[in-house]
Structure formats: C-alpha cells, structure tokens
Write a structure and sequence with these properties.
Elements: E1 3-7, E2 17-20, E3 30-40, H1 42-49, E4 62-63, E5 67-75, E6 87-91, E7 100-104, E8 109-110, H2 117-120, H3 126-136, E9 144-147, H4 153-164, E10 168-173, H5 178-183, E11 187-190, H6 195-202, E12 209-212, H7 218-224, E13 232-234, H8 238-244, H9 251-254, H10 257-268, E14 276-281, H11 285-292, E15 300-304, H12 308-326
Parallel strand pairs: 9-10, 9-12, 10-11, 12-13, 14-15
Antiparallel strand pairs: 1-2, 1-4, 3-5, 3-7, 3-15, 5-6, 6-8
Helix pairs in contact: 3-4
C-alpha cells in the first residue's frame, strides 16, 4: 500500500510514523501525483510540535509536508491541462510527504525536464517565500541588501533573486559558509554578537533593505542600522512585525503556479541554484527533521520517495500505461 508520513500527537520527530494509506483517486478538476521528492521545512516542525496549535491546529492523524514534485498518474473529470506521466511541482499543506497526493490541477506547475527533482520540489515553498521577501522590500539595482541566514533554504534563494535584480547582497552566516556565499556572488558577514558593527564595515555607504529569514534580533539590527521599516521583511519574527511595522511577506502571500514556473525556468537557465544539503529516504524522516531543526543547514533537506535508480524505469512505465489507455479499443 502507499505510504504517508503522519503523526497522532504533538511532539518531537519521534512522533512521526510511516503509515500505510489507501491509494487516492482524483475528483473533478483534480489529478493524482506520484511524489518523487518532498522537502522538509522548519515551519512543519513547529506545527508538529504544537507551537502553532492556536492558529493551525492538527487534526489527528495529521499528515506532514507541503511542497513536492512528481509525476501525474491519474486525471479527474475535466482535466485537460496535464497528461499522465507529466512532471509537475506542487504545494499541498500537511500532505506532501506521501507516495501519492491529490491536487487541484490548477495549482500545479510543469517541471522542466532539465532540472532535477531535488531542485524542483522546494520551489513552491522556499522559492516562492524568497521571491515574496525580495519583492516586499522592492529590491532594485542600486540597492545594498542584507539577507540573514543567507546560506539557508530561503536565504540562499532570496540572496540570489536579489542579485538577479542587480543589487549588492550581503549575507549573514557562520564562517563555514563564507566560501559558499561567495560562490553565489554574496558578500559574507559572520552572524552573532557585533553583527551591526560588521555590517557597517561591509556596507560603508549604508544598507537599503534587509531580508530576515532567521529572527533572533535581526530586525532590531536592521532598525539600528537605519533601514526604513518598509524596506525590511521578516519571516521569523512576529514580535518585530508588531513593534516596528515591518513586512512579513511569505509563501502564502505570493504563491501561484505561474510564479513557480518562472522560478523553475530560472533554475533551468542556470540563473538560480537550489542548494541541497542532504537527501533522506521516507523511512528516515525523523532523522531529516532532527537535522533541519538544528537550523544550521546549507540549502535544503529533502526526502526521496522514489530511489534515483528507479526513476527512469517508473517514468517509462507511466508513459507506457498512458499510451495503452489512450489506444483505441476494438470490439471482437
């Protein structure tokens, strides 16, 4: 039977289990997707821990995972925008870490064949979030922009998207990520005590915009450096939003299949890189979340639901099955 990650009580990674679930069927306007890769995200850990129970309560047994990439395997009535075997990228809150998912067809974006599954799957979550943050602070070609936790999943993409707009980008990170940030065209500055002084040295002409992906005082540092509140965006510090009136644009403010497709096109053109730090199997989901919760990850951690060596054969089988079903049936 198909597998799905679930949890039946709030807690740490140890409450996650791999459940056997029925294979879903699509309704009108829906498709079934065989998931190949599903990322893990820090916010999902917060939901599972009950941190957000007041606003996003779980309904046990609760699924997990939001973003995914996979093949279309079944079409519901009225769907003509995709065919069986098509490669797609999607976003399904609390459902993505499963062998099969059902998605409204209009919420899916086509995955370019030339980009990897691992690079495609995060685009509907961290990719869109990064775009929303860059857009919120109106990054322009003459700007100097700081991105906190610039080696992380959202930060590394936000830094690159700001660079694509022509901005000078300074990224805060640990010293072990300095060379990685330089490879992205980003000026590295070590995070931690004394950050504001180091940023003043790195940007002697001032800082125009600040994108905070980590919290823990980064918005306060931006305000101290004279960055106007309307040019600060945080996805990790609700207190600062209330105190300073800064932006908090994120995935839910910007998601559209068209935007996901645009980001995927940038990856295909090699203008945007999606760093992948680790790939786990579905059975290793607890270990994957233990690593992501350390918050020292370079890029993304993802779950591989179809082993790489099996992907080509499964894709051929899907296409063959689709051709068989499409062939005209002759009466004896």
């Amino acid at each position: 039977m198909p597998r799905a990650v679930q949890f039946s009580r709030y807690g740490g990674p140890e409450v996650l289990e791999i459940a056997q679930v029925p294979r879903p069927a699509p309704g009108p306007g829906e498709v079934v997707v065989r998931v190949v890769v599903a990322p893990v995200n820090p916010g999902e850990a917060g939901i599972r821990q009950g941190v957000f129970a007041g606003i996003w309560p779980a309904s046990f047994p609760e699924g997990q995972g939001n973003d995914f990439a996979g093949w279309v395997t079944a079409l519901g009535e009225g769907v003509d925008s995709f065919a069986i075997g098509d490669e797609v990228i999607g976003y399904l809150p609390r459902a993505a870490q499963a062998d099969y998912v059902v998605s409204p067809a209009h919420l899916l974006a086509a995955k370019p064949a030339e980009i990897s599954w691992e690079s495609a799957a995060p685009l509907s979550a961290v990719g869109v979030t990064a775009w929303a943050a860059v857009n919120a602070v109106d990054v322009g070609a003459d700007d100097t922009v700081v991105v906190s936790a610039a080696a992380g999943g959202v930060g590394s993409l936000a830094a690159q998207l700001a660079r694509l707009r022509g901005a000078t980008v300074i990224g805060t990170a640990g010293p072990h990520n300095a060379d990685f940030l330089r490879s992205l065209g980003v000026i590295p500055v070590q995070h931690g005590p004394g950050l504001t002084d180091r940023l003043r040295v790195a940007a002697p002409n001032g800082i125009d915009a600040f994108i905070d992906t980590f919290g823990q005082g980064n918005v306060d540092a931006a305000i101290a450096l004279g960055v106007p509140p309307h040019r600060i965006n945080t996805i990790a510090d609700g207190r600062a939003v209330a105190l300073h009136g800064v932006h908090s644009q994120a995935q839910e403010d910007a998601f559209s299949p068209r935007l996901v497709a645009e980001l995927a096109s940038l990856v295909a053109q090699k203008r945007l890189t999606v760093p992948i730090s680790a790939i786990y199997s579905l059975e290793q989901v607890q270990d994957a979340y233990r690593q992501v919760q350390q918050r020292h990850t370079r890029g993304k951690i993802v779950l591989s639901l179809v082993p790489e060596n099996d992907r080509a054969a499964l894709a051929r089988q899907l296409r063959a099955d689709a051709a068989t079903r499409a062939a005209p049936q002759h009466s004896p």
